[in-house]
Automatic annotation (TrEMBL):
Keywords linked to the UniProt accession: Metal-binding, Nucleus, Repeat, Transcription, Transcription regulation, Zinc, Zinc-finger
InterPro entries named in the record: DPF1-3_N
Listed GO CC annotations: nBAF complex
Protein name listed in UniProt: DPF1-3 N-terminal domain-containing protein
């Protein structure tokens, strides 16, 4: 009877590992896809990061629990104002009189020549 229990535990661990590898392949495949519009909800579906890695596994806490995973709260990412974030700033054009587009006051009677650098 002990051998049967050991075999069941080994089988269960292998099944968990197969599920983990399947989910990893599925997430890798989904991450390269473009977002698509769900016809039922009208929401653009995108890649999600809800899967835990093997390194996050901890031993079970309750009876009959093989593994536990840490709780991860969902938090909305902060969005910086585009002029403050240098990665989101558009490239500045140098105008004919060496002014940037931000420094130039709108004047509709003035002709401005844009030079590519």
């Amino acid at each position: 009877i002990i051998i049967v229990i050991i075999n069941i535990v080994i089988f269960y661990r292998e099944a968990i590992e197969h599920c983990r590898s399947y989910n990893a392949r599925l997430c890798a495949e989904r991450s390269v896809r473009m977002p698509f519009l769900d016809s039922q909800t009208g929401v653009a579906q995108n890649n999600c990061y809800i899967w835990m890695e093997k390194q996050h596994r901890r031993p079970g806490r309750a009876a009959g629990q093989m593994y536990t995973y840490p709780a991860r709260c969902w938090r909305k990412k902060r969005r910086l104002h585009p002029p403050l974030d240098p990665q989101l700033r558009l490239c500045e054009l140098r105008l004919g009189n060496n002014q940037t587009a931000h420094e130039l006051q709108p004047n509709y009677t003035q002709t401005v020549w844009v030079e590519a650098e």
